[in-house]
Design brief:
Layout: E1 2-10, H1 15-21, E2 31-36, E3 39-45, E4 58-59, E5 65-73, H2 76-85, H3 97-106, E6 116-124, E7 127-132, E8 141-145, E9 147-152, H4 155-158, H5 170-179, E10 193-194, E11 199-206, E12 209-216, H6 230-248, E13 255-258, H7 263-274, E14 281-285, H8 291-303, E15 307-311, H9 314-328, H10 337-346, E16 352-354, H11 359-363, H12 373-389, H13 395-405, H14 410-439, E17 444-446, H15 452-459, H16 463-466, E18 467-468, E19 473-474, H17 476-486, H18 490-497, H19 508-521, H20 539-554, H21 565-573
Parallel strand pairs: 13-14, 13-16, 14-15, 16-17
Antiparallel strand pairs: 1-3, 1-9, 2-3, 4-5, 5-6, 6-7, 7-11, 8-9, 8-10, 11-12, 18-19
Length: 581
């Protein structure tokens, strides 16, 4: 794992070095660079596989092809064996090195052979190939300047190049206000876009100057296999998840597990236990004795594992907001602040952890799968607010809205929603949040539910195996499989039967408290006097937007020295804030 950055063409001297330095939190174990004419690559390394010998960049045998990667390639050993049989020579045991030799054999189609999470860059002379994994687990951003292309693992790194403007993308703000998250390749910085999941991008010289081409190499299957029985589906799912957990535990450092007290992380813990792998487990809550924390403790105790319970105070929560905003690179959405705080603690002990992310999208874990009225009401209210501003969501946001609000049979709605939520909702609302918050602490998050084989199998299952509308059961096949495999463990049974109270993180109570503080302390006209006021439902939403602008527009990705959230709020209230109880 690492952070990568680079530039093709005419950019300011030292920009790639500055961009790479901005990613030091993603790779505290070292850095490396490659230069070839007008092409320069940089990498920061978090050493997990081949700790001693895996420094980047990696080159082919002749030194003509170079790769930097932010990747975990779970099938790298099999690939290495095949490539060695083809005559390739390896200089390390690192998984990243297989990419450069795959590129030699298959060119841009090297991505078809990779199983894992990755964002990488291959320099082949003056030709640049960028690639992102199938589902978008690892982020990759790019932008163009007058005579060049820049890319990086995070937006803030691109802002280290003085040629990149720091300006708000208002359409992204409008679309996020409408559907709750950015869509397509959007970021909140004008001109900066993500490389889409399952895509490659090539940059090369042409008679007219620079040519940039994007190609989709992967999409999830859309057809359902009606021939598989529900019993067989349980067995297949358990087997595929077991192999995914086995591969995701492979590392030359200790791997832990984020244990939330819910079904998904419990299943991962049970599979690891069955594989004979005792893990350290980590959980976060806003108070001792929280039901989620108690359930996570019960699961870990039933397995004989060490469990770390992290309790976050309101003051912890408040003062973590600027760091969280800088890490996430988006305004307003602080639902993930609990995991950010947890990762800061975990990162002092481990470099990698399993996480149950992706199961809700794949298997229908959200309330909206069985009750579409709530989501429709929320979107209707948001659109009404935007209409007062004269703002309209873009085409991609309107597609998302139509999925939720269109008049359609329940089964059609469910099929569309399961497909839709594996796109922007999963990537922009969850995966990029998890990755950035974890990597801000030098921690790699691994997501076995989004293993290629698991995701393809689940997407191909009949919809009613995932969400049984007639019985109102979400994640039906996973719950049944868990009870079949471990139902004699009462802690597992409780994880199947209960719904997490603090889902998806531990900060919902504190977010409500902070919102109440903002409503009470900030001026009555705080929203109405702002030019984009109708975009924000609460004073807290606008406050967080202004914080984002302070960090990313004024500070180009950096908060001022000694920045305090309490002081930031006080500046807008004109008075000191009460000290928390």
């Amino acid at each position: 794992m690492c952070g990568i950055a680079g530039a093709w063409g005419a950019v300011s001297p030292g920009s790639v070095e500055a961009m790479t330095a901005a990613l030091a939190h993603r790779g505290p174990d070292g850095s490396g660079f490659h230069t070839s004419g007008g092409l320069r690559l940089g990498a920061r390394r978090l050493a997990i596989v081949d700790v001693a010998g895996g420094a980047q960049p990696f080159y082919n045998e002749t030194g003509e092809v170079c790769v930097v990667a932010n990747a975990e390639i779970y099938n790298h050993r099999d690939l290495r064996t095949k490539l060695q049989a083809m005559g390739h020579r390896f200089a390390s045991q690192c998984d990243t090195e297989v990419i450069v030799h795959l590129y030699e054999e298959y060119g841009d189609r090297c991505v078809d052979h990779l199983r894992g999470m990755f964002a990488f860059a291959v320099a082949d002379g003056q030709r640049l190939l960028l690639a992102r994994d199938r589902l978008g687990i690892k982020p990759l951003y790019c932008t163009t300047v007058a005579d060049g292309v820049l890319f990086a693992s995070e937006v803030k790194a691109l802002l280290r190049c003085p040629q990149v403007p720091a300006a708000l993308d208002v359409q992204t703000l409008i679309d996020t206000c409408a559907v709750g998250f950015p869509v397509s390749e959007q970021t909140f910085l004008a001109g900066i876009r993500s490389v889409p999941p399952g895509h490659t991008m090539t940059v090369h010289s042409s008679p007219g100057g620079m040519t940039v081409e994007t190609r989709q190499y992967y999409r999830l299957p859309a057809e359902h296999d009606a021939s598989i029985t529900f019993d067989d589906a349980q067995d297949w799912l358990t087997g595929l998840l077991r192999e995914a957990v086995r591969s995701h535990l492979a590392a030359d450092v200790e791997v832990g597990v984020i244990l939330s007290g819910g079904l998904d992380s419990t299943v991962l813990a049970m599979l690891a236990h069955d594989l004979g792998r005792p893990l350290q487990a980590f959980s976060v809550a806003s108070e001792p004795g929280h039901p989620d924390l108690d359930q996570a403790t019960r699961v870990a105790s039933s397995l004989g594992w060490q469990h770390h319970a992290v309790v976050m105070s309101f003051d912890d929560y408040l003062e973590a907001i600027p760091g969280y905003t800088r890490a996430f690179e988006e305004p307003g959405r602080i639902g993930g602040l609990g995991v950010y705080y947890l990762y800061q603690q975990v990162g002092t002990q481990l470099k990698a952890c399993l996480h149950g992310e992706g199961a809700d999208e794949l298997l229908g874990g959200y309330t909206q799968y069985v009750d579409r009225s709530q989501s429709a009401r929320v979107i209707a209210a948001r659109l009404s607010s935007l209409s007062r501003l004269g703002a309209r969501p873009g085409p991609r946001a309107l597609e998302v809205i139509d999925t939720v609000t269109a008049q359609q049979p329940r089964a059609t709605y469910l099929d569309r929603l399961l497909t839709e939520n594996m796109r922007d909702q999963l990537v922009q609302n969850h995966l990029e949040l998890l990755d950035k918050c974890a990597m801000a602490a030098g921690l790699e998050i691994r997501v076995p539910f989004l293993d290629d084989a698991v995701a393809e199998f689940v997407m191909g299952l009949p919809t009613h195996y995932k969400v049984n509308l007639s019985l109102g059961i979400q994640k039906h096949v996973l719950k049944s499989a868990a009870l079949r495999a471990w139902g004699d463990n009462s802690a597992v049974a409780d994880s199947v039967l209960r719904r997490k109270i603090g889902a998806p993180t531990a900060g919902s109570r504190y977010q409500a408290r902070l919102s109440d503080m903002c409503e009470r302390e900030l001026p009555d006209d705080y929203l109405s006097r702002h030019e984009l006021g109708p975009c924000f439902a609460t004073k807290l939403d606008l406050l967080l937007h202004e914080l984002f602008c302070e960090v990313f527009l004024a500070g180009r990705g950096e908060a001022p020295t000694g920045f305090s959230m309490r002081e930031f709020i006080a500046e807008r209230t004109g008075k000191a804030l009460p000290v928390p109880a």
